[in-house]
Amino acid sequence: MEIRPVTESFAAEIGGVDLSKPLSATGEASIKAAFWKYAVLVFPDQDLTPQQHIDFSKKFGPVETDRVLDPKVTPHRLDLSFADISNLTPEGKIWAGDSRQRMYKAGNKLWHTDSSFKPIAALASLLAARIVPPVGGNTEFASARAAYAALPATRKAELEGMVVVHRMTHPDKEHDDGYRDDDKARHVVTHPLIRTNPVNGRKALYVGAHAQEIVGMPPQEGRRILDELTAFCTQPQFVYSHSWRDGDAVMWDNRCALHRATTFDKTRYKRKLHRTTIAGKSPDSAFAAMP
Ligand SMILES: [Fe+2]
User: Fold this and answer.
1) I need a labelling partner for 33 at 20 to 30 A (CA). Which of 8, 92, 194, 291 fits?
2) From 24-33, 111-120, 265-274, the region with the lowest mean pLDDT
3) Structural domains counted in the chain
């Protein structure tokens, strides 16, 4: 196994490992150490079956199975352990230009962190490429840890102890978002604004599109601060943009990395990626050490 840093401390490529095969104890420990050190791990040349994808994910924690899009309007193409990151119908055809599904996915273009609207926030996501467009469709990652480190000490002190309301839906979304009303009501939770990783003591800003209010502040004032912090985190010096190759599997730490999808010609090219989302163990243990 070879760990090659792509950026100094945020993204690394891990070569010489086949995730479809059982890992040695040392191999697993090396991957977990890299996950702590970096936040985005790229595994090239993988060809995982759904079960192998799930099995590797489970080494980090439980895999989420509660999908939030209403299956009546967006039929599941995959096992409930997977988020379907594609522009394809259940028959494998490219969505029509005006399809409702296309609108539902519009939120993925906003900087966010997966499942921050759940009481048990996501620890990590593992996204495997099956079909990638020849141009565009990158996934961009922003280091909310490097951004926190770059804040002035006075700003860090002001933000310390703040608690943030996360919602599944985005307030600026004017269109039908494909979520069920009961799910929207259920997915309103609070998390600390600044989260500390107990293993390495590194702090990160926990912001993005789902982070919408600060507890104890007028909503607009909280939103202004959160938008400002998300903009701060996503400056070019904190961003790694991943250009997908067939067979790439990318895993990221949702506790300290924001991500967003970038555009591609969705009426011309197919793009199909499968994602598992790995949950923390309890509401307060999203940062607890992994097994
Ligand atoms: Fe996402």
Assistant:
1) 194
2) 265-274
3) 1
Gap from CA of 14 to ligand 1 centroid (Å): 22
Q: What type of residue is 291?
A: P
CA of 154 to the centre of ligand 1 (A): 31
**Tens digit of each residue's pLDDT (9 = 90 or more) over 31-81:** 999 999 999 999 999 999 999 999 999 999 999 987 665 555 555 656 788
- Distance (angstroms) between ligand 1 centre and the Cα of 114 equals 5
CA 282 to CA 264: how far, in whole Å? 37
What is the CA 20 to chain-centroid distance, rounded? Answer: 22
* Beta-sheet pairing, 122-131 with 194-196: unpaired
* 288: Cα separation from own chain's centroid: 18
Ligand 1 is an ion; residues with CB less than 5 A from it: 114
Instruction: Please state the pTM of the whole predicted model.
Output: 0.89
Cβ contact 19:46 at 8 Å? yes
Q: How far apart are CA 111 and CA 127, in angstroms?
A: 16
> What is the whole-number distance in angstroms between the Cα of residue 246 and the centre of ligand 1?
19
Residue 126 in any domain: the answer is yes
Q: What is the CATH number of the domain that holds 158?
A: 3.60.130.10
Q: Ligand 1 centre and the CA of 117: distance in Å?
A: 12
Longest dimension (CA), the chain: 55
